[in-house]
Amino acid sequence: MRQLFKTFKVAFQAIYKNRTRSLLTMLGIIIGVGAVIMTISAGEGATKQVQDQISGLGTNLLMIYTKTEHRAGAHVRMGKPINKKDFEMLQKNSVWISKLSPLVVSVAQAIGPNGYKSIAIYGVSDQYFDILSRDLLTGEYFKEEDVKTARKVCVIGKTIKDELFLDLDPIGRQIRIDKIPFTVVGFLKEEGKGAMGQDQDDIILAPYTTIQNRLSGYRRGYDIIMASANSEDHITDAKIEATELLRETHRILEGEENDFEITTQIELQEITGNITGILTILLGAIASISLLVGGIGIMNIMLVSVTERTREIGTRLAIGARESDILTQFLIEAVTLSLAGGIFGVLLGVIGNHVIYKITNFYIPTALYSILIGFGFAAFVGIAFGYFPARKAAKLNPIDALRYE
Amino acid sequence: MPLKKVIETKKVCRVFKNGEIEVHAVTDVDLLIEEGEFVAIMGASGSGKSTFLNILGCLDKPTSGDYYLDGVHVNNLNKNELADIRNQKIGFIFQSYNLLSRTTAIENVELPLVYDRTGRFSDSKELAKKALEQVGLGDRLYHKTNQLSGGELQRVAIARALVNDPALILSDEATGNLDSKASIDVADLFVELNDKGKTIVMITHEPEIAQFAKRMIYLRDGRVLTDEIIKNRSTKESALRDLELTA
Question: What mean pLDDT do residues A110-137 have?
Answer without folding.
Answer: 88
